[in-house]
Task: inverse folding
């Protein structure tokens, strides 16, 4: 599987569209047909690929960050989060950020006071 950076929207769109088409959804004649799985209409090719189980979800990264949040500093979590973004395929990095931003930034105030 190819590593993609989430923020490169066009590349992500093209990749997930390709995965969906390579799966050859039979009988699809419209955008809605390509995005409807078991009667549920998904808004993006990425969501469609997840529904088809062509991609893994972020469960593994969520477990790593959850475990690390209990024993690591914000600085260390920051580095782990960057590693996940740069070297792993995270399907929803924005959700990971929202979930763990308080832990990732927990020592930021002290660092900023010390520097400035």
Result:
């Amino acid at each position: 599987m190819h590593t993609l950076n989430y923020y490169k929207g066009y590349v992500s769109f093209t990749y997930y569209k390709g995965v969906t088409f390579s799966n050859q959804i039979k009988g699809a004649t419209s955008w809605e047909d390509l995005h409807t799985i078991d009667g549920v209409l998904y808004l993006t090719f990425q969501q469609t690929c997840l529904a088809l189980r062509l991609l893994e979800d972020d469960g593994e990264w969520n477990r790593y960050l959850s475990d690390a949040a209990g024993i690591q500093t914000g600085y260390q979590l920051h580095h782990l989060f960057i590693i996940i973004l740069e070297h792993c395929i995270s399907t929803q990095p924005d959700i990971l950020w929202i979930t763990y931003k308080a832990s990732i930034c927990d020592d930021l105030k002290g660092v900023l006071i010390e520097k400035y």
Q: What stands out?
A: The two ends are 43 Å apart (CA to CA).
